[in-house]
Amino acid sequence: MPDFVFAPPPQPAVAVRGSSALFPARRVYCIGRNYAAHAVEMGHDPDREPPFFFLKTPDALLPDGSVFPYPPGTSDLHYEVEMVVALERGGRDVVEAEALDLVFGYGVGVDFTRRDLQAEAKKLQRPWEIGKAFDHAAPCGPLARASEIGHPTRGAVTLDVNGARRQTGDLDQMIWKVPEMIAYLSRYFELAPGDLIFSGTPAGVGPTVRGDRLVGHVEGVGALELTIA
């Protein structure tokens, strides 16, 4: 055993539906503006431009049913419901026709964003991490195995806040599809087992406050429930 100067932190992991096994998380990639209507509401051209990604830390993952602690330094915390893609294989320069062979399964996630801090970072032309990669900012529900549900290409993507529908979209509205995202990422990073990809959010993002109950759902994949502390 290596002689660490202190005990290593626990391995971040995501539950697997119908199993006691856990999916060990390595990296968390997130694609930006992958639904045209969301691009428009954020003030951008919805035309198909090259994709871009940002990272969240694996220890920001939070399981289904959790109480999400409202983060410090913000007064404008936004929800963004997304389908999450979990990889069980990796590689470089993956061709689109083989990209789905890397996928273990799919889940439902929320890309929490400190929107005011993100906006300030954009204004100053600085990185987004302060608005995106904070503690607990990547909740993710149990993963459904692709061997059981297949590879979803259509289905409703929704988020309710206190029982009221706030976000509505469909997987078939994604500008960049899952095989394209995997292939593109693999040109710039060596993908590996344990990588997660948050695949973008539909329109309707907005602020949440302490006491809110959030329920995200992706048809054919699953759900994620959270309470804001």
Report on this structure.
Residues 28-228 form the Fumarylacetoacetase-like C-terminal domain. InterPro entries: Fumarylacetoacetase-like_C, Fumarylacetoacetase_C_sf. GO terms for molecular function: acetylpyruvate hydrolase activity; metal ion binding. The protein is an alpha+beta fold and 229 residues long. The protein has one domain (13-228): Fumarylacetoacetase-like, C-terminal domain (Fumarylacetoacetate hydrolase, domain 2), CATH 3.90.850. It is built from six helices and 18 strands. It is globular. The mean pLDDT is 95.
**CATH secondary-structure class:** Alpha Beta
Number of strands: 18
Note the gap between the termini: 39 Å
| Biggest sheet record | 6 strands, mixed
Shape: globular
Please estimate the helix content: 10-25%
How many whole angstroms does the radius of gyration measure?
Answer: 17 Å
Tally of separate helices: 6
CATH architecture: Alpha-Beta Complex
CATH homology group: Fumarylacetoacetase-like, C-terminal domain
CATH level 3 topology: Fumarylacetoacetate hydrolase, domain 2
Q: What percent strand? A: 25-35%
Number of discrete domains:
1
Helix and strand sequence: EEEHEEEEEHEEHHEEHEEHEEEE
Output the structural class: alpha+beta
Mean pLDDT: 95
* Cross-sheet strand order for the largest sheet: 4-3-15-8-9-12
Low-confidence stretches: none
Keywords: Metal-binding
Domain Fumarylacetoacetase-like C-terminal: 28-228
GO molecular function, one term: metal ion binding
Protein name: Fumarylacetoacetase
